[in-house]
Every structure is written in C-alpha cells, then in structure tokens.
Amino acid sequence: MYRADAVFAVLLLLGALVLILQALKLPVAWTEIGPGTGFFPFWLTVGVALHAALILVQSLRAPVPPGRAAPFIERESVRPLLVVFLPMVAVIGMLRYLGIYIGGGLYLAGYMIFVGRQRWVTVSLVSILLPVTLFFIFERWFLLLMPKGALLEYLLYGR
Amino acid sequence: MPSAFDNLIYGLGVALTPAHLTIAFVGLILGTAIGVLPGLGGTNGVALLLPLTFHLTPTAAIILLASVYWGSLFGGAITSILFNIPGEPWSVATTFDGHPLAQQGKPGIALTAAFTSSFIGAAVSIVLFTFFAPPLAEWALKFGPPENFAVLLLAFATFTGLGGGDPAKTLFMTLLGLLLSTVGFDIVSGAPRMNFGLVSLQSGINFIVIAIGLFGLGEIFLTVEEGLRLRGVRGRIGFRDLWETWKMFPRYWATLIRATILGFWIGVLPGTGATPASFMSYGLAKQFSKNPDRFGKGEVEGVIAPETAAHAAGIGALLPMVTLGIPGSPTAAVMLAGFFIWGLNPGALLFQNNREFIWGLIGSMYVANVLGVILVLTLVPLFAAINRIPFGILAPLIVILSSIGAYAVNNQVLDLWIMLGSGVMGYVFKKLKYPLAPLVVALVLGDMTEQALRQSLIMGQGSPTIFFTRPITLAFVLASIFLLLLPLIRSYRRRPRLPAPAI
Prior knowledge:
By secondary structure, chain A is mostly helical. Chain A is about 75% helix and about 5% strand.
C-alpha cells in the first residue's frame, strides 16, 4: 500500500505544480484593492504542493510491511469496479442523445443483468418503472428540468 | 428582545404546523432509510435532497434536511446491530457490542438501547443548544474580519489536531478544499481566475457536486470493491424489550452524562462531528467500566455510549453553523451550502433577521427527535427490510440519483464529469486514508475565509500583526497554533493515537 501512497503523492505534487503556474498568471502581490486576485490561490497552491511533498517523503520513509505488498486494487475487484464505472462514463458521454431518464434506465438494466443477475421480469419492471417515477418526481412535481436527451424529447414532444 | 424561552415556544409553534410536521415526518422516514442503506450516507442523502428544496420556503427546507439528518443518525444503528454492517460511519462503534447482542438473541434489547440512548443524547443536547446558541450568536455579532478569520483558522486547525487522521494528509485536504473554492472568479474584484480558460468553470466548482462525488460515488466504488454480503439477524422490538431495556437505563446514568457532554463538545468543535465522538465515547466507556473485558461481547453499555455521543454530536455540529457560519460536520456543511442557495446568510445575523427560520429549526429538533424515536421503535422490521433490496439494484439506483442531484444544482453536464472525477478521487482518498471532511468543510468555507483574510490584511495595511493585537483574535490564533502542533507533541510523547479513523 505504501507504494500506492507514494505514487499518488507524486501525482498530487505534479497537479499542485500545474496549479501554481495557473495562480501565477494572476496578480499575487499587493494591489490597489489590497491583496491581489491571485494572493489567496497562490499561497494555497504553494501550501498544497508543500504538503504533497511532505506526504511523499513520509510514504518513502515509512517502514515497508513484511511480506508481499497487497496490490492497491485486488485483482478480483477490478472487474466489478469497471462494470460500475465505465457504463457511467458511457451514459454521461451520451447524455445529449439519451438523457438522464433513458440513459439511467439502460444503466440500471445493464447493471441488474450483468452484476445483479436478476430475473428478466425484475429487470424490465425496475428499469422502466424507476425512471418513469423519477421523471414524474423531478419534471412534474419539483419542476427540476433534467437533461431529457434528443430521444426522449422526440418521443415526448416530437421534436 | 424576547427571551430564549419565548422564542422556543414560538419555534415549537412553527415546527408543529401541519405542513412542517408532515415535512419532518417525511424527512425522518427518508433519513432513516438513507441511514439503513449501506453506500448511501447522511451527507450524500442531504446533498441529494438539496435540489428538491429549491421550491420550498427556507424554513420548510431546513426542517426537511435536518430531519433527514436525524433520521440517518437513527438508521445507522439498525444495520449495525442487525447486519453487523454500519449504515453510517458514526455507527461503526455500535457494531462492536450491538451485533453480538443481536446474535445472542437480544436484538430487541440492543435496538431499544441504541434508540433510547440516541434520544437521551439528542434531547439533552437540544436543550443545551437552545440556551447556548443565542448568546453565542450575540457575541459573534461583534466579530470583525480578523476575528472571523481566526475562528475559521481554528476550525481548520481542529481537523489537524483532533481529526485523528494523518496530519500532513489532513492539512493537504484542508488546503485543497480552500483552493478548489477559489476556482471561478475572485469574490472581491469579480475577475475570473483559476479556470484554465474554461467558461463553464467560471461559475466555480460547486460544493454539492463535489460532496456527491466524494461521499456518494466514492462510497459506491468502495462497497462494490469489498463486495456486499448481508447476513442478518431479524429484529423487532416487543414491549418486553422496551421494559427490560429501560429498566437498565438508570444504572448507566454516568455513561449517559459523560457521552452526552463529550458528544456535544466534539460536535461543537468545527469539523469533527458524530464519527470521532462515537469512537471516543466507546473508548471512554470501556476505560471507566468495572468490567472492560465484557466490551465487544455484547455489553449494553457498549451500545449506549457511542449512540448517545453520536446524536449529541449531531446536534452540537449545528451550533457553530447557525451562530458562526461554520459547519461542525460534513453533513452540516451540505446544509450550510443550502443556506446560501435559499438566500440566507448563515451566522449570527440569522437570530436577528430570520426568527422563523432559526427558531423553526430549533423547534423542529425537539419535534423530530420525539417523532423519530417513536418511528424507529415501531418500524424497525420495515426499515430492516430495506436491506433486502439487492445491491445489484441499489448501486445503479444510487448512481442515478447522484447524477440527478449533481446536475440539478447548476443544470450543466460538466458537473456530472466533475462528480465522476471526484467520485474516483474520493475512492482513492479513502483507500489511502486521506480524510474527506476537511476538504468538504474547507470548500464550503473558502469564500468566507478568503474574504475575512483579505479584509483583515486591508485593515492592517498589509501587515499580519493584526491577528496578534486584538484579544479575541489572538486567543483563537494561539489555540489554532496549539492544535496544529498537537500531532507533533503527541508523536513526540509517543502516546497512542485517538481510536477514531479518518473521517
């Protein structure tokens, strides 16, 4: 685990350096309105970078536990994690076409079939009824307009 | 000005109107369900419901969110005791003795003990709250920018000193939270900054989106990785359980008092909240007990101590929020974000300008606590049944609800990507033991901190000595320095760390 700690600290450090450069584009010093726009962000980025470095040093100095180090993610956990994660990326990526209700329904169905191993009846009932319920709760009851996507817009309003 | 007592009567009147009573009832049911469901926590639950409050009055909105919070505090105990799976981080300590009791065929006693002690811890804390909050708020009204900055500093230092996590990681997360709050535009000059030239980032990174990602998706990823297996004990509470448990309660008066005071105090400390309170209270009860070796094997006191403290802390966490504008826990931070959305300025002025809101909230604490304990005592089997929902349905459902919640805040798709990104980060952070609470609280307090700091520096013509020449400021600054140094002192003396995990 300590190696993951060190690797992650390096990534954080690199990210912090990018942010320092971003902050340096702003007036950092005293200006006519007091401390400049970049004053607060700049010193924060410096602090973030210093602490990332400190975490890195700590993780390198920590005693290595005896025996084979456990991997950051166990081999058998990789698949279930990807099964949750990748479809999310796909659905958000296609949000413009599918919308949150149809996209969400598909996500629900897919997960229930491939991970939950539910029966077809359950899958179709849940993945149709749930988005429909949510649709009524958000669009009608609470008047929160969600991205409906081209497909649902077409089905509902014919455009 | 009316006395606290008059105000309380007025607040109870506000909370007892049929509309508000219904909202509290719905909130409690939802909250308890959220507390019962693993992978869906109080912080995330409140964040998901926040968009639904946009069309409510602020008073109704805060009553809803607060009731969800109380409900989730109750609900966490149910899964801990019956399934040995903490529904919430603050109910981890409840599993230690609660589940053994359930396995010994006494689930009713464990549940009654948990709910009753929660009720007592909360009830006493609410009374403390009612009479501490107004004077504290009045005192805070005298604060200028340097005092405000010093209080915020103290809040951040508390994380490092008492949070129990790795000090370097805690400080890192605090600074990162503050840094994220600077993205968008400068609050003083209005100039765009830190947005990498992206127009959609100009309105800033929304706190709710980050909270949903970190706490909602991050938790889902962790649960998926660990694989969820529920093997539980069936539980219901009969009248005999009630009688037998309540008969035991007077015996534990010392534990109850200790746990309540400890919990309330830990809760009031900005940023700590119910989780460390429950662990510390469990540890204390074990230390003071005549038979500490019975702990972990089904000792009723081991259920009472953490539950009392967790609820007391939950109430205490709201005290700095309404008086100073500083949330005492991540869940309180989400509620604070709500204040801004509803157009309220959290802090001392609430007591002057928003009497209905603030006393309605306080009144609803009394009402919701009584209502809550009756609900959970009677409906345990129903809530436990929620856990029969297969995780294969629950996980994608939480993902969808999270996406809707994150999108509803600003109506932009970019927020969904930010949510997904913070979900991944939340997963990695949790695995590598970076505490999440400091990041979330710092993010919500970032604007306030920057404003206070810059105004103070302007007042002092650029010199930081202004933080050392004003008595209240100096006291807070010294306390902060002490807290920041505390981990160093502690490691020097090689005392064992607090038994609390990173939160």
